[in-house]
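Appendix B, Record 12. Input sequence as logged:
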Amino acid sequence: MNRRRFLQYAGGVSLLVTAQDRAVALMQPQSQSVWELSSFEFDVTTVDKTGVVKQQQTHRAKFFPASISDTESLEMVTIASGQFWMGASRSEVAAQGYEFPRHRVKLPAFFMSKHPITQAQWAAVAALPRVKRDLDPDPAHFRGQQRPVESVSWLEAVEFCDRITQYTGRRYQLPSEAQWEYACRAGTQTPFHTGDTITSQLADYIGTTTYQGEPTGAYRQSTLSVGQLSSNAFGLQEMHGNVWEWCADDWHRTYQGAPQDGKAWTEVRRSQMRTIRGGGWLDAPAKIRSASRSGYTETALNRTIGFRVTAV
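Logged structural output:
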């Protein structure tokens, strides 16, 4: 049993350099030259409204392994610069008012961790020198070194970022909401990066509930170890389901006045509510859509909320 009190969230919330490589590098973070990038291959699956696989393609992406302790590292995947429509379309099934107005956002390149932060990674960073606050090395309700860490507050997630920044000398932080959605969509405009719907073979959520015409699937009732389910076209995994993920932004009930440059939307006199994205194991498929969002108190603990990190 988790030693800490939590509030239960209830569903609301060796590189060959070619001309092509050089062209891609122009779109990648400027600081990448000090890091040796490696490539990896992965499959990207797309399904139709009935959940039938209509396409499966092999993609390649680049990343750098970031050492965050003597024992653990992060796979930081290159996310190229670009523009996208943020928010839900009016025709999207189960779209909510706080997913509007849909707006165009232009982002510079950045890196994002391939998976949500695992319990092994969390424990390693919890042993690093404190910056502002202590960290419980073993906070998760669902135990497993390769499962995502959860039951950590937004403030603790920020401390995690501050500690690896101090350890590596490179700035790590929580993603902005715009970065998160851009990374999740990976060039798609459909409700999920998998297409018009999703299945429990591709994500961890309440698969006994359907979104479109797909068959019902599994409800695992817990988090899953990272790296088991589908990748999107950027090579990121678990962007849909498993755990909600903390973002840097304050919670806003609409996108009216939201930044269009990809930066986190924060206020001088902010509330203590922060944005979470991606949905979790305890959510119906509508809640794990690319556009789905919710807010949660920055000090609260929850077995459905974890996080991933970005770097520039």
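Residues 5-33 have pLDDT under 50 and may be disordered.
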